[in-house]
């Protein structure tokens, strides 16, 4: 993946990349790749532990965001389905999902960074981070294709 210096600044603030550059990647690369490496290394630790829904007045509906090293980031909707949404709804105490609407239903910004894709939950995991997922981001993930959910509560 190739990202220009301008994109690097937008995708990853200096404090995150600078503090992790030497410890995560010795190769000089873009901040996004470093953050993705951190996601892989720390996916079961305190560095990544939270999810939230945004963009809706309803507390149990909206665009999915995940906390990655102090920043809220988006999840790509590639392969996103009701089983994945079930884990998020349960994790948030929001019952069960009744739909996985397009991100446009919640006014998704086209420039938001995406940190994970291809989430493949069975539906019984206790956390989204326990579900198989990829940090290989395809181009279409940057085109407003973000995971969203409507839960019953």
UniProtKB/TrEMBL annotation:
<dbReference type="InterPro" id="IPR036772">
    <property type="entry name" value="SRCR-like_dom_sf"/>
</dbReference>
<keyword id="KW-1015">Disulfide bond</keyword>
<dbReference type="GO" id="GO:0016020">
    <property type="term" value="C:membrane"/>
</dbReference>
<protein>
    <recommendedName>
        <fullName>SRCR domain-containing protein</fullName>
    </recommendedName>
</protein>
<dbReference type="InterPro" id="IPR001190">
    <property type="entry name" value="SRCR"/>
</dbReference>
<keyword id="KW-0677">Repeat</keyword>
<keyword id="KW-0732">Signal</keyword>
<dbReference type="Pfam" id="PF00530">
    <property type="entry name" value="SRCR"/>
</dbReference>
<keyword id="KW-1133">Transmembrane helix</keyword>
<feature type="domain" description="SRCR">
    <location>
        <begin position="51"/>
        <end position="152"/>
    </location>
</feature>
<keyword id="KW-0472">Membrane</keyword>
<keyword id="KW-0325">Glycoprotein</keyword>
<keyword id="KW-0812">Transmembrane</keyword>
<feature type="disulfide bond">
    <location>
        <begin position="121"/>
        <end position="131"/>
    </location>
</feature>
